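Morning, I've got a small favour to ask if you have a moment. It would help a lot if you went through both lines with me. Thanks so much in advance, here it is.

***
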Amino acid sequence: MPERWKAVLAALLLAASGFAAAAPTEISFYFPIAVGGPMAKRIGALVGDFEKEHPDIRVRPIYTGTYKDSIQKALTAHRKGAPPDVAVLFAVDIYTLVDADAVVPFDELATTAADKAWLQGFQPALMANSRAAGRTYGVPFQRSTILLYWNKKLFRQAGLDPERPPASWREMTDYAKQLTRRNAAGGTTQWGLQIPSSGFPYWLFQGLVAANGAELMNATGTETYFDQPAAVAALQYWVDLARVSHVHPPGIVEWGTTPANFLAGKAAMVWTTSGNLQDLKDKAGFPFGAAMLPAAKRRGSPTGGGNFYIFRKSAPAQQQAAFRFVKWMVAPERTARWAIDSGYIAVSRAAWETPAMRKHVAAFPAAAVARDQLAHAVAELSTHENQRVTQALNAGLAAALTGAKTPQQALQDAQQEAMRILLPYQR
């Protein structure tokens, strides 16, 4: 080969090697929403902004449907050896992910002093569902508590102070009686209170149990306490709202229709996630308020929502890129913006000090209620074999709410099934 062609070939090879070295690291990102919609657009915009600031990383969002769909897809991909590099999954799925050896502790990735300090900067109550066996496997992202929402217009019509929500179970029942309306035929046209019992019934139930001074599981996810007296009394109260006080719809109340009924004036007070706050604000044609859950023995709500997880079978370069992406996504300015746009809790303390969040709370004080409720929050129900355990509880709740079993029997049966499932994890 002539020398000049050798020189040309060498130059081409050098250029090719430089191009290869400059090729960005691509990471896959599972996110739990259906394709399309405003949340997908917001995630897409965030990914685009991240890539502009980090041209050496490309993020491929994959929208995976519900949280239940997402954990199943992530675990299936993990077993096949091709997991996502990073995913937002239910915080309560932490034991399931750890038991499958699917995720990397953030402690292994946060090696610098700055990274270790960053890992300590999240709201403490949100970390209860982010740590297992002394290690941090999840980083909070879209997290929530349950709130009580009330229609101030309907309060005023019922002769109630529209600026004073119920602070106790007794007040909640009394208010609900005054807010329930029936037509001449005896049909209910406006319910005083609606607590959904489909979708995430265990979560709403935990709001009642926490307010009654109890928790449903231990800190290591190996035991449940579904049939303890405080839990039975909480379920009895929920059942009696419909069967005794007649202020709450009977049977199973749909999760998805609860906000719609509130917006339509068919329910004067509802319990639902703080993640619905901004949507209700955008759609309500009436003044409404958002409050901490009423107390029985104490205030209380479980936390909820999703964490970031980084997967163990990803290559080291992808893990490091995913770690940079997670840190960028939960930076104070972005988690503040995400909270403002969605109603989820800004997950770090620093986010609440940003100018944007300060301005938002000043104009819309309800935005701070879920954050303030964290002082009274408990960890969401999370155990080994979590989906099977929560299904046992959900079945018991449905049996009690539909009248198929008494609250006592329903929770005893759920407890027996849960402990049978958890038997292999007893030490």
User: Anything to note?
Assistant: The radius of gyration is 24 Å. The chain has a mean pLDDT of 93. The first strand starts at residue 25 and ends at 31.
